[in-house]
Amino acid sequence: MTRVWDGARQHRRARLERARAAGMERWVEADRATALLEAIVESGDRVCLEGDNQKQADFLARALARADPAHLHDLHLVMSVLALPEHVELFERGIARRLDFSFSGPQSVRLAQLVKEGSIEIGAIHTYLELYARYFVDLTPRIALVAALAADSEGNLYTGPNTEETPAIVEATAFRDGIVVAQVNERVERVPRVDVPAGWVDFLTVAPSPSFIEPLFTRDPAQIGEVQVLMAMMVVKGIYAEYEVDRLNHGIGFDSAAIELILPTYGQELGLKGRICRHWALNPHPTLIPAIEAGFVESVHCFGSELGMEPYVAARPDVFFTGQDGSLRSNRALCQTAGHYACDLFIGSTLQLDLAGNSSTATTSRITGFGGAPNMGADARGRRHPSAAWLKAGREAGAGPGAIPRGRKLVVQLLETFREHMEPAFVERLDAWDLADATGMELPPVMIYGDDVSHVVTEEGIANLLLCRSAEERAEAIRGVAGYTPVGRGRSRTAVDALRARNIVRRPEDLGIDVRRATRDLLAARSVKDLVRWSGGLYDPPRRFRSW
Amino acid sequence: MTAPGHGSTRASCRESSARRRIAGVLDPGSFRETLGPAERAQSPHLAALGLPAAFDDGVVVGAGLLGGAPVLAASQEGAFLGGSVGEVHGAKLVGLLRRAERERPGAVLLLLDSGGVRLQEANAGLVAVSEVMRAVLSARAAGVPVVALVGGAWGCFGGMGIVARCCGAIAMCEDGRLGLSGPEVIEATQGVEELDAADRALVWRTYGGKHRYLIGEADRLAQDDLGDLRAAAQHLVARVRPLDLAALEAEHAMLVRRLEVAGACRDAAEVWRVAGARDPDRLPLVEVDEFVASIADARARLGSAPSSAAPPRAGAGAEVGTPPTGRTGALLADLFPRGHEVRDRAGLLVGAGRGSSGEVAVLGSAGGAELGVEGALALAGELLRVVRDHPGRPVLVLVDSRGQRMSRRDEVLGLNGFLGHLAATVELARRRGHRIVALVHGDAVSGGVLPLGFMADEVHAVEGANPWVMSLPAMARVTKLPLGRLEALSRTSPVFAPGLEAFLGLGAIESVWRPPLHEPLAAALARPAGPDLRAQRGLERGGRLLAAPVALRVAGGANAR
Amino acid sequence: MERLAFDLESAGAPAPQRPPVVVGAVASGNLEVLVEPGDAPGRCHVEIATSARGFGEIWGAVLQDFAARHPIAGLALSVNDGGATPAVVALRLAQAVEEYLAQP
After folding, report:
1. Nearest-CA residue of chain C relative to A422?
2. pLDDT by residue for chain A (548 residues), tens digit each?
């Protein structure tokens, strides 16, 4: 019995034939989108619906949600972000059954409810790069539904500033006999540049309205408080300067925005321009504009774009990765790789931290997922090239007697000891355990594992976990910066003093920081309007951020 | 490289605390605070609501120098309960202004950042704002320049929006906001289609410094910088509007012109267009200097250039109205048994009655009418006519109003300015010897009573009158205090309770008139005018124990240091 | 609302007599701190009015640590608190005392 070796290819042709028989060739009218999907998608298929962090193939999501579940059901969705109500609808209607994803943001509560109701099976929650990796191994999509800004008649796609993960999705699908459908904002004579070649795309449709994009990385400087400024000062002086951190990624948040905004002021004052923060794996944060204008930043590679930043980015091609057409080219898969291997530091905020340094944003009523943090905030054990920061961190971590020395990535967790409503951020046991129990996950969903964490920064000071030599020391160091939370108050005064003597715990005064200077005056920009001025009028903030 | 003029090099008005603001506007090191935080002149009413008080009740007052000249100054702390005015807060401002009347400094600077009446002190807050209005106008009448500086993060709304326009001049930072009913209030009462408070561009277009300056509500526009604001203050101190007939007629003409040109507009952008501003869509983004230069013609067209002053139209008197009927008719018959020709023009009362010693001008509201820009202008015009044509004629103000008209249009056109103008005409009339007595005969609510009724020499009421600040459910929503708590308090505390008894106890209303009404009317008109005694009454009657002594302390110039 | 009072020992020379200083504002998540010369030479008396009830122990711990780190003997601190976290409280206390001591 001879095996069929091109079964997938034949199957693909059959699907395309069904579409042709229904009168649909390459370019499909918007009002036939559902019919197209009903023709080419089959129950049980693995479908990648482009739900990126910022952009969404929302028209195709709606078209799929309008399919008849009697004929099309039990799809396996593989997608980065479950962001839209339309995505949830797919599960509610039974069109989709199984989900492998990375992040769920706005739908996190709804997702937890779906799991409880039994309307959804979660395969696994991933970090972004891990999910793309599986597109090439065991989660290859049969169908990819993607979004682009424009296409020419041939079908070359221009994804522009928000290219994000489209190339990764399409490559995996197209080269394993899958079918790629693209929604575009417009059909043009000539695309500014080719981000995805026509040969990789099977169907195109002009969506009735532009694809959905969220400005997720814009933080209004008016919301930054003094405590965040204090923590930012500690990070700049106690970590960036100490380790000469030149290549880094900031997890999104007001904490990291404060760091970006004090580089031109406090960073300048400390003489750090040209010595730190020159190369970034980062979305085009508006709060980075002052540091760029002040001359701190040499390069930024982006995961995606940011609404309103396009003209500024296009005017700074020396800093950003831009095409010959002038617009940004982002690429999440490659930027995640850059953040993993080519950056010496990751810093991010979290909701909860335990005494081993494990952190999680999980709570029992939401399934949020991870996004990119696990990848960025993990020691890159495959890394081999040295840098000052990596070697210093490696020395501090210590290889143990007789062992071979290695470098170490700086992974910094940033959090105030209490959250809103006086909820302690430091806990003995993460809520992640409870979430795992409630939803049947094999492992509690940890964002960043304690043994990857190098430093914990709170309003109390910096705990350097690299210098700790035992789990007990690490726990005591974390207690030393856990403030007046029950965890913090459980600390031994003598133990913390001893840790301070070894620079494992350092308070602002140990770092030579005068807390009186921790005011909003230290921010290079204190409002969105200030950012616009810094950009010379190039930054065009979305309406919700503007008071003009 | 720091891009010009921003970031840490600039002392932002919006970012500064009240103390920092006042220190940044006055000559460095010159400010001496009166009744400072160490003296703990705190609110006596907040503890009952489980709210912490502020040591200075949210306002800093004292003396300093501006360009070497002695001035008195006050600065409101917007962070504390929205900078709102409670019993003590208001008394500190009143005391400062009384001190100014006595000492005649170079100016009084009022750095305003307030939502208006402190709802947590309801009635006491309302009468406090009214006392501040009278005190500002009194100081102006005595020749003291009173300049309002508006640039804080909370904006200047409610009764303080009227106070701002009772001043002799206003300087605004471009990021500042000034109005009467704030965006949240308009949205809550009229719906999100009327005004979407989350649409920040719309909010700043409507209430922001640029629009206020363009329509002539603000006299000077400054950058968000204390140095710039200080320069604006110095400029304006030398150019305040006097409180005399000519100046008020000119202001009236400006407001008439504004309504003529922009009265049909619903949005500030429309106003800019009809006024002929070049490139109106770009205006919100340009810097202050460029803005001021580019809209100079439009500003003049809207009536703020002196040469555009025309004599107030007799139109105010030309509309006829109908003879009042029902309860209002009966009231007027009882007040003027000798007859009257007061007319009701859709809730506005205008006319005169025959008193025992001669004609009495009658002005005011009936039927719960809401006061909007047209109504305020008509009342002010009528009062100016009386001042011009009938020197010395006494004025009876009748109050039955449910407050100011809440609409986006009224705010776009600057309703707070119209009400400030009305209040100023009352002060003018008073100074020119017209006795002014008010009688509350129905509802009396915030903007409906502040600019006219509560500006009188004496405020009386008839049985059944109903002064109040805000409905308890609305108050519970805005303050986020439990309704049950407010209801319980309103049964025992005159500060909360709506109605006549409470306002009598606070001294806000002098007495209740019983029929036949022409008798107490004649007695009131025969009494000579005097200073504002409402705080004194509140002390005597036990409803307000702190307003009078605090105002006295501050007026005496007690030094904190 | 809750009222708390503490009497703290503080090492070091007693703080000098200076005019009172106030920092901060009474708003949600914020507080104002008034620093003035106190009555007891070797101790610091602290009075707190707070809208957040039930955190007396944490206030006590924050103040103990603060007294150990700053020379506040002979001072009186008064606080109006709108529910600030210990992070903001510690910052305000430090700002207030340092501003007080920096006066000529």
Report:
1. C85
2. 789 999 999 999 999 999 999 999 999 999 999 999 999 999 999 999 998 777 899 999 999 999 999 999 999 999 999 999 999 999 999 999 999 999 998 899 999 999 989 999 999 999 999 999 999 999 999 999 999 999 999 999 999 999 999 999 999 999 999 999 999 999 999 999 999 999 999 999 999 999 888 899 999 999 999 999 999 999 999 999 999 999 999 999 999 999 999 999 999 999 999 999 999 999 999 999 999 999 999 999 999 999 999 999 999 999 999 999 999 999 999 999 999 999 999 999 999 999 999 999 887 788 999 999 999 999 999 999 999 999 999 999 998 888 899 999 999 999 999 998 899 999 999 999 998 888 888 999 999 999 999 999 999 999 999 999 999 999 999 999 999 999 999 999 899 999 999 999 999 999 999 988 999 999 999 999 999 999 999 999 999 999 88
Same fold across B11-244 and B315-541:
yes
Q: Do B7 and A294 touch (CB under 8 A)?
A: no
CATH of domain A344-506: 3.40.1080
Contact B163, B140 (CB under 8 A): no
Contacts of B471 (CB under 8 A, 6+ apart): none
Rounded to the nearest angstrom, the gap between the alpha carbon of residue A281 and the centroid of all alpha carbons in its chain is 11
Confidence of residue B23 (pLDDT cuts 50, 70, 90): very high
Residue identified by tokens 């555009």 is: B308
Rounded-to-integer distance, Cα A184 and Cα A211, Å: 8
Taking the CA atoms of chain B, what radius of gyration do you get in angstroms? Answer: 22
* Subunit contact A226:C91, Cβ cutoff 8 A: yes
Chain C CB contacts of A226 below 8 Å: 88, 91
What fold characterizes domain A21-213?
Answer: Glutaconate Coenzyme A-transferase (3.40.1080)
| Partner residue opposite B54 with nearest CB, options C36, C50, C80 | C80
Contacting partners of chain B (3+ CB pairs under 8 A)? A, C
Task: Give residue limits of the domains in chain A.
Answer: 21-213, 217-343+516-537, 344-506
| B7/A524 touch (CB, cutoff 8 Å), yes or no | yes
Residues of A in contact with B3 (CB under 8 A): 290, 293, 533-534, 536
The shortest C-alpha distance from C85 to chain B (Å) reads 16
Which residues does A24 contact at the CB level (< 8 Å), separation at least 6?
A32, A35, A36, A39, A203
- Going by their DSSP bridges, the two strands A96-103 and A461-464 should be labelled as unpaired
Q: Which residues pair with A188 in a beta bridge?
A: A152
**ipTM score of complex:** 0.96
Min Cα–Cα distance to chain C from A228, Å: 10
Residue B284, chain A, CB below 8 Å: the answer is: yes
The alpha carbon of residue B83 is apart from the nearest alpha carbon of chain C, in Å, by 11
Find the residue in A nearest to B9 (Cα).
A521
Domain spans of chain C, in order of start:
2-102
Torsion, CA B474, CA B476, CA B477, CA B482, rounded to 10: -150
For B11-244, CATH number? 3.90.226.10
Rg (CA), chain C: 13
- Cα-based distances in Å from B92 to A7, B25, B144, B479, B506: 87, 20, 18, 23, 17
Instruction: For domain B315-541, give the CATH number.
Output: 3.90.226.10
Q: Do C98 and A516 touch (CB under 8 A)?
A: yes
C71 touches chain B (CB under 8 A): no
For residue C20, which residues of chain B lie inside 8 Å, CB to CB? Answer: 36-38
Q: How many CB pairs under 8 A join B and C?
A: 48
Chain A: give the shortest CA distance to residue B281, in Å: 10
CA atoms of A339 and A409, how far apart (whole Å): 11
Instruction: Decide: B518 and B334 in contact? Cβ < 8 Å.
Output: yes
